[in-house]
């Protein structure tokens, strides 16, 4: 079997409808797409979720090249914590995708700006696929995190945040992160992390991998903040608040327009100097390991 393929994995859960936005940007440039789905439609917190059968009609109609494969298994293990189940599911999914290929995991609420460019950047490191267990690597892009929909637009975190998307060897330690060296690339991914209705957000907070880590004051601040008062608040991250110091505002809810805002933004631009220093730091850290 020929390896070194671009394999993309998604997790199917309560927000599965968002896959209609996250799969299309990666479809053309991927060789295979795998969707991990709990066979009983149960979240990591043990809650059942309903699935509209029309989603599978959409998936079949969209998959014109027949490259999408659904992988069903039992991903709810009551003796494990939510984050352990998250990590376990991603590991099993990557084994299904096949070591020897690029193992890219994208969440249903993550939308690549230019996946073709990300793949082009990945291909520069194909030699890491020759003997993945001996030369482990992770490849990161940067999130622009959408925080909350408001009446006329979207609040977002006013600084790109690093996020690992690909690896050659899936010995994950926490969700899709391993302990291997990270190579940072100047690719942007819109992350619709918390920007959903209050009801949807409450359900997410109860059923995702970070359930036990969420700061108890987080939701109150999320409810209070809006497009008129966001500059009066600070420290918005749901675990360690100060990691997301400030919000800013997109005066639109259209994802295509938001892409244009991001491209023009000086704050959200990743400089070559910044990327060089991040990658040099990682190279030096792992030089003698």
UniProtKB/TrEMBL annotation:
Superkingdom: Bacteria
Protein name: Glycosyl transferase family 2
Organism for this UniProt entry: Flavobacterium johnsoniae (strain ATCC 17061 / DSM 2064 / JCM 8514 / BCRC 14874 / CCUG 350202 / NBRC 14942 / NCIMB 11054 / UW101)
Lineage, highest ranks first: Bacteria, Pseudomonadati, Bacteroidota, Flavobacteriia, Flavobacteriales
